Amino acid sequence: MTTPGAADTSRKVLVVEDNEDIRLLLNLWLSDDPRCLSVSEAASVDAALAATRQPASYDAVVCDFMLGDGTAADCLRQLRKAWPAARIVVYTASMRVAREAGVLEMGADLVVEKLAVVVEDVVELVLGEADKAVSAA
Q1: pLDDT digits (tens, 9 = 90+) for 98-116
Q2: What are residue 66's DSSP bridge partners?
Q3: Which helix (H) or strand (E) covers residue 64, if one does?
Q4: Which SS3 state, helix, strand or coil, does residue 62 take?
Q5: Of 30, 45, 46, 77, which one's alpha carbon is 20 to 30 angstroms from that of 53?
Q6: Which domains does the chain have, with CATH numbers?
Q7: How many CB atoms lie within 10 A of CB 65?
Q8: pTM for the whole thing?
Q9: Which residues pair with 72 in a beta bridge?
Q10: Cβ-based neighbours of 113, under 8 Å, separated by 6 or more
Q11: How far is CA 70 from CA 22, 37, 79, 82, 83, in A?
């Protein structure tokens, strides 16, 4: 169910995930949602940082905390600086580690635990209303 006005705004989303299968799954689910205009992918911290130097703008970012070349903490400040109005959702296997890294203070809007959410929940957290967040830190 969408909220009034939600269908009026199609969002461009950046998925930052080093696992190709998970990245593809998130891309497919997000792309299938009518609230999503387009999905771009970054497979690493370096690729996410490179995206901030491109002319493209994003309305939302979904980012795994642990990436092959670092963590979300290594790119969050730059993502927030590049797209100040974007909703940034970080998902992690360890809420403790993400909290200790200070991801909310670095610019994430939400931190969710991988075990507590499924792909459908991530889509809603990225594209839906912020007050509908589940398992948010």
Answers
A1: 999 999 999 999 998 887 6
A2: 71
A3: strand 60-64
A4: strand
A5: 30
A6: 10-132 (3.40.50.2300)
A7: 24
A8: 0.81
A9: none
A10: 91, 92, 93, 94, 95, 135
A11: 17, 29, 15, 19, 21
